[in-house]
Amino acid sequence: MNRAMLGDDPTSRSSRPIEDWFKLIVKSTSDFTRINRWVSTFALAVNEENACFGRVVTAPTNGAAGVIPAVLMYYWCFFEQSDEDGVVDFLLTASEIGSLFKKGATISAAMGGCQAEIGVSSAMAAAGLAHCLGGTVAQCLMAAEIAMEHHLGMTCDPIGGLVQVPCIERNTMGAIKAITAANIAIGSDPAEARVTLDDVIRTMWETAQDMGTKYKETAEGGLALHVSVKVVEC
Ligand code: SF4
């Protein structure tokens, strides 16, 4: 996707200096479809790196590590006002939201299904982005709430027990929901909201406890049951 978006030879393995790459991305588009594809590309890249045992930053887990960088790259590449202070603030805001979920519910798919991984990473990224777009504290919390609200109940059923399908692609969905949640929150009055972040954290934890073990990283249900993969012997 990266090479296709930049018009590069799809078979080439060469890469550019990172500064040049950033400039090309920024120059290449202001069109929604292409920005959307870039966000997916960023998320996929991180989780392919994770799936092939490369180095990633756990945020809040490895399987969900692509959401936050994808949304952060969206901020960095496509907003004129983006700067390094914004990146730091994004990460601090996202981290605080992650810790609220860790204390009030779980960030473990083995305990809560994928809502605890992709859902939490999406909530973290939504709050970080809302902050960078000028959101108040209440709007950041609202962004996190909206992002998690629409991941509630999401199961974990990695095909073959591998963090590849649906995990790699699922990060693109978490990222785009985070961006949507941030934009909704920025355009809203949190005083009018019916659901609070506390409500959604409590609900996520109760849903986690009700969820069957076959949907908690065991690959005993869902897609894992109906789709087979060939696992190559190491
Ligand atoms: S499906 Fe399971 S292993 Fe994959 S990203 Fe979600 S929680 Fe992680």
Walk me through the topology.
Blueprint: H1 2-6, H2 18-28, H3 32-51, H4 67-78, H5 84-104, H6 109-112, H7 118-132, H8 137-149, H9 167-186, H10 197-210, H11 223-226
The structure holds iron/sulfur cluster (SF4).
Oligomer: single chain
The helix-and-strand class reads: mainly alpha
Low-confidence stretches: none
Q: Whole-number radius of gyration?
A: 18 Å
How many strand units? Answer: 0
The count of domains is 1
Pattern of helices and strands: HHHHHHHHHHH
User: Largest beta sheet, briefly?
Assistant: none
Question: Mean pLDDT score, rounded?
Answer: 95
Share of helical residues: 55-70%
- The shape, in one word, is flat
Structural write-up:
- With 234 residues, the chain is mainly alpha-helical.
- The chain has one domain.
- Helix 3 runs antiparallel to helix 4 and helix 4 packs antiparallel against helix 5.
- The two termini are 28 Å apart.
- The model has no long low-confidence stretch (mean pLDDT 95).
- The structure holds iron/sulfur cluster.
- Iron/sulfur cluster binds next to helix 9.
Brief characterization of the structure:
The chain is mainly alpha-helical and 234 residues long. It is built from eleven helices and no strands.
Write a concise keyword list for the protein shown above.
mainly alpha, binds iron/sulfur cluster
